[in-house]
Write a structure and sequence with these properties.
Layout lengths: L3 E4 L2 E5 L1 H10 L1 H15 L6 H12 L4
Antiparallel strand pairs: 1-2
């Protein structure tokens, strides 16, 4: 029982545990999914000079 988990054209499994087992058995696909998630959600590294300028500008602001 449970919902079907699908990624692109691949049916991963019905229910969380079956999808989890599928990903354990298919590490290349699991790594691809993890890479895409990290690219989407992990912030981009910004220029250190820009960060320093922002820190300096906000340090002068009193809240």
């Amino acid at each position: 029982a449970g919902a079907w988990y699908t990624y692109e054209a691949d049916q991963l499994g019905q229910g969380k545990e079956n999808a989890r087992a599928f990903l354990i058995d298919n590490p290349d696909l699991a790594n691809d999914i993890e890479k895409k998630i990290r690219e989407h959600y992990v912030p981009v590294v910004v220029d250190a000079e820009l960060v320093a300028a922002i820190d300096e500008a906000t340090a002068e602001v009193e809240f």
